[in-house]
Amino acid sequence: MNNEKMAQDSQNIPKVTLHEHIEGTITPKMAEKLAERHNVKLPDGFIMPEGSYDKNEFPYGRYGYDESDFWAFIDTYDKVAGLVKTPQDYYDITKDYLSINAKNGGAYCELIISPEHMAVEDGKLSAPKYKAMMEALSKASADVKKEYGMETRFIATAVRNMGTESVVNVAKFVAENHHPLVTGFGIAGNERAGDFDDFKEAHEVAGKAGLKKSYHAGEICGVESIKKAMAHGAVRIGHGINAVNDEVLMKELAEKGVLLEVAPTSNRILVNELEGDINKHPLRKLYDAGIRLTINPDDGGIFGTDNGKEHKIAGETFGFSKAELIDVALCGIEAGFCDDKTKKSLKEKVLSFSAKEDVKEFKSLSTKASNPYLKSRLALRAKEVEAYQKIASYQKGKKNKPIQINKFNQGR
Ligand SMILES: [Zn+2]
């Protein structure tokens, strides 16, 4: 398949996003709107003036920070996050982001929310404020579902560099203030702050509350952080790209079906080892090692990317074929923190994009795969697509039958 065809397929295919921080979704256009609403003057050069960047590449504007300067990025993130204050602000940024995601083929999205950012009143987590914010987020998600058919869930996430007590408090707060769309618990922030063992109580509280766990690990720190996250019950790892340095761990991830939420552009910008070069990203190696993964924007608004762009990178730079991207989407749904009924209908949505020739493609990919986990998963995908195609053609046949009979009669 040529690269152009791959890029086209990567745009059309239904997509699953499992790693996107809500405040990081804010595009420069949205930041300007919020700054105006709150009478905040953004510093000169904070947003690049029109004409100084490629508008096709950055349709929602471009921030002015230097990509090679980590602290400039953090400063931008903090300033942008500081602009979201009210439930209306949260409604607007969520609606804006989910609409962009859905227009790029998004079928399912999980957004990372931070109670410490959105629900603090007088220095404390406030249940009424959290409730009001969650109402705004739920409305945005319902409005987008109505308009585009996309499903959304939320992962309440603690920030580890705020301290152990704070991580535990967030877990307790989320467990006590149950919301049907908050289905996961996360730990993010500076990976070097604290150890997963320190947050023992948080892991337990989240587990007892039935929240599934996705922890950031193996982005900045090494493989040990990924192992500890898994030991404390994380069924998904935010980033986890350093797993590529440990064959044994890669095998364990593949065997246990622990999914990595990979974010190529974010990693290119923030992970020093990649030296700003997307070609050094281990996306392909991780996939070929049989590890389940999704391809995510992380902080799409701030990094100037979105789910469409990230999938395009997967197609163009890492040669992901249509069948492989269908597999990625299905892996994302299977690892999603939503109920089985939702998963079933999401899988059907993805499979409805498949064609008869994809069965052949999956079979051929499975034959070529040297990793046993990938091999058997792709063989299974061939069967899933085949079964779906059979049902689809049967249903189509049923629908067409009376028309065919009429035609036949008319001919006589
Ligand atoms: Zn993240």
Topology:
Elements: H1 3-12, E1 15-17, H2 28-37, H3 70-81, H4 87-103, E2 106-113, H5 115-118, E3 120-121, E4 124-125, H6 127-148, E5 151-159, H7 164-176, E6 182-188, H8 200-208, E7 212-217, H9 223-231, E8 234-239, H10 247-256, E9 259-262, H11 264-270, H12 283-288, E10 293-295, H13 300-303, H14 307-316, H15 322-334, H16 340-351, H17 356-368, H18 372-411
Helix pairs in contact: 1-14, 4-6, 7-8, 15-16, 17-18
Concise account of the structure shown:
The chain has 412 residues and is an alpha/beta fold.
Which ions, cofactors or small ligands are bound in this entry? zinc ion
Q: How many DSSP H or I helices? A: 18
Structural class estimated from helices and strands: alpha/beta
- The helix-strand sequence is HEHHHEHEEHEHEHEHEHEHHEHHHHHH
Please give the share of residues in helix. 40-55%
Largest sheet: 8 strands, parallel
Let me know the average pLDDT. Answer: 92
Q: Note poorly predicted spans.
A: 403-412
- Beta-strand residue fraction: 5-15%
> How many domains, as an integer?
2
DSSP, total strands: 10
CATH topology of the largest domain: TIM Barrel
CATH superfamily of the largest domain: Metal-dependent hydrolases
